[in-house]
Specification:
13 strands, single chain, six-stranded mixed beta sheet, seven-stranded mixed beta sheet, 16 helices, alpha/beta, 470 residues
Length: 470
């Protein structure tokens, strides 16, 4: 992709295009001929000045037939004050499909090329407007599924990840310069302050590990948490989903086995996107359709990040509950005691979960929650239990504003390993040349994160995941 950028003007539809939805559709151009193409296609009546960062009103027309294609606005952003640091033009057309597609086609006929996925942002990176962490944050912001994910992406876009990474790399470069100076001019310089070098490396490693601790948090914010509601038939799993999602996604009856397939709902809890899966009641099925539903339930439970094992408060812990527990207890698990509103006075509610918690089966159950799903009771407690379970696992170490992705985590891990190798070389009193080998490796890995040292194949892999108009 990076070889075909020079001298070309690219064009793409920059907004989502849905039939009969959306009031505005944007066609974006970037490159040396973007303004010339706009002059060919756009007629602005009166004395409207064609100046940077002005919006013009007019009509898009065919340059030969002069047929009007759309009534639109034209936004001019001349280099270097634009997203790509090239001349950028945007046609703000009526929404829908036909208007923007016709305008895009006219742009292509005037010499523009259809942009590759992510090519606008790639140009912004190659032209020095943003670094690689900011480019990836743009993709994260576009795909954010919760307010917290959006805020984390915005922090990365503002450079809050790039700044500490650059500082770490600068420190490593300073150490390398000191070491290489002693190698080249050993007789003219005082001996290297080994204690100071050790202290600097220790501080760099501590910061690297601190940032690495945000990897799980970043993955959770980007991909969300898959939660499976499992249990025997008629324990209230579908009622729990409906109460939680405040909808009637699942059919609820008094008949066991009503749910025959997996029902999905998307929620956000504490800033974390959650995919909730209501499964068919797990039991020995009596017909082929139910057997398929039960098998799918087992598969969902096996792959879920968190399992909500739901039981009937009136029935208590049964042999069937034990059987289901044995199948899912390798996953993080919360016990949901549902239908507590139906308990009579003969059972003391406060002691009920305590007695069950002390029983042998509950060695790995993270939380026990009481709910009355049909009465919309206990949902807040359930959400708090989920957040507490996640907090004790992946989120507790992640206290930065930003959260790294898998690529950044892999590069930081390589940097960490190289820095440990430097410490080992110092501890073993190896010659200074050995120190520089691993130190250069750490510098290169840190440079890959911000894009100061990056290959074309890495760029293609990153930007190919963007939408075409970005």
């Amino acid at each position: 992709m990076t070889k075909i950028l020079q001298g070309e003007t690219i064009a793409a539809i920059a907004t989502a295009i849905v039939p009969q939805q959306g009031s505005v559709g944007i066609v974006r151009l970037s490159g040396s001929t973007a303004v010339a193409i706009a002059h060919q296609l756009f007629h602005a009546p009166g004395q409207q000045p064609w100046e940077s960062h002005r919006i013009l009103y007019g009509q898009v027309h065919h340059p030969q037939s002069h047929q009007v294609v759309d009534e639109a606005l034209l936004l001019l952003m001349l280099a270097p004050r634009s997203y790509t640091r090239e001349d950028v033009v945007e046609f703000h057309c009526h929404g829908g499909i036909m208007a923007v597609q016709q305008v895009l086609q006219l742009c292509l006929e005037q010499g523009a090329r259809l942009a590759e996925p992510g090519e606008f942002t790639l140009r912004a990176f190659l032209n020095g407007r943003i670094d690689l962490t900011q480019a990836e944050s743009i993709a994260d912001l576009v795909g954010a599924r919760s307010p917290q994910a959006a805020q984390t992406a915005l922090a990365g876009l503002q450079g809050k990840l790039a700044q500490p990474i650059r500082q770490l790399r600068a420190t490593c470069l300073d150490i390398l310069a000191e070491i290489e100076a002693r190698i080249d001019f050993e007789e003219d310089l005082p001996p290297l302050d080994e204690a100071e070098t050790k202290a600097q490396l220790t501080q760099v490693l501590a910061t690297v590990e601190h940032i690495l601790a945000t990897a799980d948090r970043g993955e959770l914010l980007r991909t969300g948490l898959k939660v499976a509601i499992v249990g025997r038939p008629n324990v209230g799993k579908s009622s729990l989903l409906n109460a939680w999602s405040r909808s009637d996604r699942a059919i609820v009856t008094d008949l066991p086995g009503t749910t025959r397939d997996v029902v999905e709902s998307q929620l956000v809890v504490g800033g974390i996107p959650i995919q909730v899966l209501d499964t068919a009641g797990i039991r020995e099925a009596t017909d082929q359709v139910e057997r398929i539903g039960v098998e799918r339930s087992r598969q969902v439970a096996q792959s879920a990040d968190l399992v909500l094992l739901t039981i009937d408060a009136q029935a208590g812990w049964t042999d069937d509950d034990q059987m289901i527990y044995d199948q899912v207890n390798h996953r993080p698990l919360i016990l949901v005691i549902n239908k507590v509103d139906l308990l009579g006075n003969e059972k003391s509610l406060p002691s009920y979960p305590d007695a069950m918690r002390s029983s042998p089966p509950f060695g790995v159950i993270a939380q026990v929650v009481q709910t009355a799903a049909s009465q919309n009771q206990g949902i807040d407690a359930l959400e708090q239990a989920i957040l507490a379970t996640v907090q004790t696992g992946t989120l507790q170490a992640a206290n930065l504003d930003v959260a790294i992705n898998q690529r950044q985590s892999a590069a930081l891990t390589r940097a960490k390993a190289a820095l440990y190798q430097v410490q080992e070389a110092i501890a073993n009193q190896l010659p200074l040349d050995f120190w520089t080998i691993d130190l250069r490796s750490a510098i290169q890995a840190l440079g890959e994160i911000t894009g100061e040292e990056v290959t074309e194949s890495v760029l293609d892999r990153i930007f190919s995941r963007f939408c075409i108009g970005k």
